[in-house]
Amino acid sequence: MRTEPSRPAFDLDRFQDLARRAELTPGRCEWPAELGSTNAELADRLTAEPDGWPDLSVLGTDHQTAGRGRLDRVWTVPPAACLTFSVPFRVPAAFPAEMLGWLPVVTGWCVAEALAERGAPAGVKWPNDVLVDGRKICGILTRAHLDPERGTTVIIGIGINVSLTEGELPVPTATSLTLAGGSADREALLVGVLSRLGPAVAEVLRAGPRAGATASAGGVRDAMITLGSDVRVELPGDERFTGRAVELDATAALVVEVDGERRRVSAGDVVHARPA
Ligand code: BT5
Question: DSSP state, 170?
Answer without folding.
Answer: S
